[in-house]
Amino acid sequence: MGGVCLNGKQKGQIGGSNVVWDDGNAGNTAQPASGFRESPPSAIVYAVPEFIWGMSDSISWIVVGGIVGAILGSFIDCARYRLPRGISLHRPAHSYCASCGLPLTPIDLVPIVSWLCLGGRCRRCKAPIGIVSLLVEFISASIGALLMFWLIAEH
């Protein structure tokens, strides 16, 4: 694995992606030896602390876990509302306001964000949407992110 030496660090390619790694003889003590990491695409290679740059993939997966958790939480909240009332989960196929009955648009269905942007009220009739909906989505998003964090930490 050859590469260009930059201040005791090697730069080259592994598997088609650019990487920077420490060869163990680094004279720069500001950068700890930590093995392989992807190099940033910019010219300021060492401006981002290495512990943050190495976590970027992990953070992305944790965010994905949180998003999936929020989506599942939205479904759980829908089931929490519909099932005790004897309403089917698949008919009507669209979500609707419990107060005015009008179908919700896709922008109204973004978990957590739409509740916060609308101030916890229906876009059309301004009827309040219970905070329980927000809490179910938030707790589910947190569980999804924590689960993904746990899975990443285990491997």
Q: Tell me the total number of β-strands.
A: 4
Helix content range of the residues, please? 25-40%
Largest sheet, if any?
4 strands, antiparallel
User: Can you list the strand order of the major beta sheet?
Assistant: 1-2-3-4
Please identify the structural class as seen in this structure. alpha+beta
Helix/strand order: EEEEHHHH
Number of domains: 2
* SS summary, helix count: 4
- The general outline is elongated
Mean pLDDT: 76
From the N-terminal CA to the C-terminal CA, the straight-line distance is 25 Å
What is the CA-atom radius of gyration, in angstroms?
Answer: 24 Å
**Weakly predicted, low-confidence segments:** 1-17, 25-34, 42-48
Beta strand %: 5-15%
Characteristics:
4 helices, four-stranded antiparallel sheet, disordered N terminus, 155 residues, alpha+beta
Quick overview:
39% of the residues lie in helices and 11% in strands. With 155 residues, it is an alpha+beta fold.
Write the layout of secondary structure elements.
Blueprint (H helix, E strand, L loop, with lengths): L3 E3 L2 E6 L2 E6 L14 E2 L11 H4 L2 H27 L30 H5 L13 H24 L1
Structural notes for this entry:
The protein contains 4 helices and 4 strands. 12% of the residues are buried. Helix 2 runs antiparallel to helix 4. The longest helix has 27 residues. The N terminus is likely disordered. The chain has 155 residues and is an alpha+beta fold. The chain is elongated and about 50 Å long. Strands 1-2-3-4 form a 4-stranded antiparallel beta sheet, with no helix packed on it. It folds into 2 domains: 45 residues, no CATH class; 90 residues, no CATH class.
